[in-house]
Design brief:
GO terms for molecular function: dihydroorotate dehydrogenase (quinone) activity. Keywords: Cell membrane, Flavoprotein, FMN, Membrane, Oxidoreductase, Pyrimidine biosynthesis. This is Dihydroorotate dehydrogenase (quinone). The protein is α/β, with parallel strands linked by helices. The strands form 3 sheets. The protein has an 8-stranded parallel barrel with strand order 3-4-7-8-9-10-12-13, surrounded by 4 helices. The longest helix has 22 residues. The radius of gyration is 18 Å and the shape is globular. The chain starts with a helix and ends with a helix.
């Protein structure tokens, strides 16, 4: 059934089909239909960051930037849902076209640029949702906020989403906001993490609960840079790391239509780079900080591969677009089969 739907959707432009799919999933969620349209996975609860996840396979940020279809995605069998990236103020993102399919490689290039309706709109959507499972909210900075003042935007979002999120992801690795990735390195990263950690302590006291902070990193760092990031996260007392965002590399898609478009590449071509980053992080972190793995999972065995590399949870994005809800169950089953 999904293969037929995909054939029809792929006749539309990528962004049009994305918006239509989001509308349909959202409508199905409001009507309670999505669980009837696909076989959801058996429960496989796992505890990470002090939170109990229904299963270890979640929706990655980016598919539902505004929290428009939280109930719909949860009914498809995801063990957790992450929405965003959201910024303090609404912004249109980069000019269209800004999403490109590479179907021969099961890849997608996007340069969306944190297009979203702003944090207040997202919070209204969260308040209206019936979902009571683990909800991650991914936060970023507005494109016109100077990198030197990026911490201000992150703190605004952190303050606003804290009471509504199960965990909060700090996106410092999107390649589509100028200068953003510089926040992953050296003193810039340490200063950002220190500010976030201080505010997390203050908000814990105010709200009477500690909401975990996860940092999302890129797959394009050297092993040495990845190790430095791991050490900075430990030193700052962060709660998790998400590996990885999209890649600027075009390895594996050379010569394909749209391969030279600017933006981040996701899907099957990023799988090995992302898994390698997970392995480097796992080696350095040695179990002291959980890893959420995302990047290139298009089959259940790829999800198991991420867990074997050292991840505690996985997330789907492009693989979900190409394979549909069946990939959720396939991934949960593959992880369960590891024992």
């Amino acid at each position: 059934m999904y293969n037929l739907a995909r054939q029809l959707l792929f006749k539309l432009s990528p962004e049009t089909s994305h918006d239509l799919s989001l509308d349909l999933i959202g409508a199905g969620g409001r009507l309670g239909l999505n669980g009837l349209l696909c076989k959801v996975p058996a429960a496989k609860p796992v505890t990470v960051m002090g939170l109990e996840f229904a299963n270890p396979v979640g929706l990655a940020a980016g598919l539902d930037k505004n929290g428009a279809a939280i109930d719909g995605f949860s009914q498809l069998g995801f063990g957790f849902v992450e929405i965003g990236t959201v910024t303090p103020r609404p912004q249109p993102g980069n000019p269209k076209p800004r999403i490109f399919r590479l179907p021969e490689a099961e890849g997608i290039i996007n340069r969306m640029g944190f297009n979203n309706l702003g944090v207040d709109n997202l919070l209204a959507r969260v308040a209206a949702a019936k979902y009571r499972g683990v909800l991650g909210i991914n936060i970023g900075k507005n494109f016109d906020t100077p990198v030197e003042r990026a911490v201000d935007d992150y703190l605004i979002c952190l303050d606003k989403v804290y009471s509504r999120a199960s965990y909060i992801t700090v996106n410092v690795s999107s390649p589509n906001t100028p200068g953003l990735r510089s926040l992953q390195f050296g003193e810039s990263l340490k200063q950002l993490l220190a500010a976030l950690g201080r505010r997390q302590e203050e908000l814990t006291a105010i709200h009477g609960k500690r909401v975990p902070l996860a940092i999302k990193v890129a797959p394009d760092m050297s092993d040495e840079e990845t190790v430095e990031v791991a050490r900075a996260l430990l030193e700052a007392g962060m709660d998790a790391v998400i590996a990885t965002n999209t890649t600027l590399s075009r390895e594996g898609v050379e010569g394909l239509e749209h391969c030279d478009e600017a933006g981040g590449l996701s899907g099957a071509p990023v799988r090995e780079k992302s898994t390698h980053t997970v392995k480097v992080l796992a080696s350095e972190l040695a179990g002291r900080l959980p890893i959420i793995a995302v990047g290139g999972i298009t089959e259940g065995k790829h999800a198991a591969e991420k867990i074997a590399a050292g991840a505690s949870l996985v997330q789907l994005y492009s693989g979900f677009i190409y394979k549909g809800p069946a990939l959720i169950r396939e991934s949960v089953d593959a992880i369960a089969a590891m024992g």
